[in-house]
Amino acid sequence: MTSRSAAHVEKKSLCRICTAQCPIVVEIDAEGRPVSARGDKQNPHSEGFFCLKGKHFPEMHTTPGRLRHSLARDAGGEQRPIEVERALDEIAVRLQAILDRHGPDSVAVYTGTLFYQLPQTAAMATAWMDALRLRLRFSSGTIDQPGKQIAAAAHGVWLGGSHVFDESDVWMLVGTNPLVAISGGIPHANPARRLERARARGLELIVIDPRRSETAKRATLHLQPRPGTDPAILAGILREVITTGRFDRDFVRENVAGFERLAQAVEPFTAERVAVRADVSADAIREAAQRFASARKGSVTAGTGANMSGWSNLTEYLVLCLNSICGRFRRAGDRVANPGVLTTQRAFKAQAIPPYKVEGYGKPLRSRPDMPPAVCGLPTSALADEILLEGEDRVRALFTIGGNPMRAWPDPVRTQAALERLELHVVVDPRPTDTARLADYVLAPLLPLETPGSTLSTENLFTVSPALGYSEPYGQYAPPIVAPPPGSDLREDWAFFFGLAQRMGLALELSPGVFPIPGVRMPKTKLDMRETPTGEAVLELVTRGSRIPLERLRREPDRVLFDDEPSVFVEPRDPDDTARLDVGSALLLDELAVFDAGDPHARAGYAYRMVNRRMANTFNSLGTDLDALTARYGTNPAFLHPDDLAREGLARGDLVRLRSPHGELEAVAWPDPDLRPGLVSMCHCWGAPPGEAADVRKTGSNVGLLISVEEDCARFSGIPLMSAIPVRLVRA
Question: Same domain for 110 and 251?
Answer without folding.
Answer: no
